[in-house]
Amino acid sequence: MGYLVLLMEDDSRYAQIASEYFTQNGIDLVWRTNGREALEELARRKFDLVLLDVMIGNERYEGHVICREINELYPALPVFMLTVLGEGSEIEMGYHAGAESYITKATGAERYVSKGQAMRLLHLQVKARIDKARRGNGQKTRYEGHGITLDANAQKVTNDGQRVELTPKQYGILEVLMANPGRICSRDTILAQVWHETYYDVETRMVDNQICQLRQKLGAKGKKYIKTVPGKAGFLFEKEEE
């Protein structure tokens, strides 16, 4: 089943870059330049997610108005707001309007190199959010391996029956790894699934630091079963032999 995302953006250059990148990487992106067209599109097709520029139409808070309307009409449809401003009051308004996530665009010549990474990580976060929604009912909520248990319903981790206190980021990383035993999880994938803010500004070494602390809290098992994949590809939780 394919992925379908609606982009509401009046910056044609940004929209073109996003459309090309998303399409090349397995997500169909429908681009509309104003709220009226976008709402008509939402009524015609079932979308997985909306990317909404907060300043669409060059009106500073127009995106918030549209977001509120989308939230009223389609309460289950996640909306990620895009902005170049990133001010605290504006972000708070977006969340009140029903936005699920707020993402600051990479702008300016001095950040040209980071734009490609920003688009890549935006794509990863969008895909991760859609995948999570699709798992929805019937999603596995308990993971076990090597005596380590993660109960997603109770938000609890135990090691040989003893509770392990983790920070939200450490818990999120462990859940990603244990949900994919024996599979390599790249740093970009972990950033997309665990960090939910303007995460392309998060340096990948922060993932490594959290992994290091997670291993320490899990003791010998953390060091033994959470492996760093050579070549800096990422990390994996060693699959338990059946």
Task: Specify the helix fraction band.
Answer: 40-55%
Q: Tell me the β content.
A: 15-25%
Average pLDDT:
82
Count of helix runs? 9
CATH homologous superfamily grouping of the largest domain: Response regulator
Uncertain residue segments? 107-113, 197-202
Count the beta strands: 11
What name does CATH use for the topology of the largest domain? Rossmann fold
Cα separation of the termini: 31 Å
Question: How would you write the strand order of the largest sheet?
Answer: 2-1-3-4-5
User: What is the alpha-carbon Rg in Å?
Assistant: 19 Å
The description of the largest β-sheet is: 5 strands, parallel
Shape category: elongated
Order of helices and strands: EHEHEHEHEHEEEEHHHHEE
The helix/strand class is: alpha/beta
CATH architecture of the largest domain: 3-Layer(aba) Sandwich
CATH class of the largest domain: Alpha Beta
Give an overview of the whole structure:
This protein has 242 residues and is an alpha/beta fold. It folds into 2 domains: 3-135, Rossmann fold, CATH 3.40.50; 142-237, Orthogonal Bundle (Arc Repressor Mutant, subunit A), CATH 1.10.10.10. Helix content is 45%, strand content 20%. It has helices at 12-24, 35-44, 62-73, 88-97, 112-135, 168-178, 187-194, 205-218, 220-225, and strands at residues 3-8, 27-32, 49-53, 79-83, 101-104, 142-145, 148-151, 156-159, 162-163, 226-229, 234-237. It has a 5-stranded parallel beta sheet, sandwiched between helices. A 4-stranded antiparallel beta sheet has the order 6-7-8-9, with helices on one face. A two-stranded antiparallel sheet has the order 10-11. A hairpin with a 2-residue loop joins strand 6 and strand 7 (148-151).
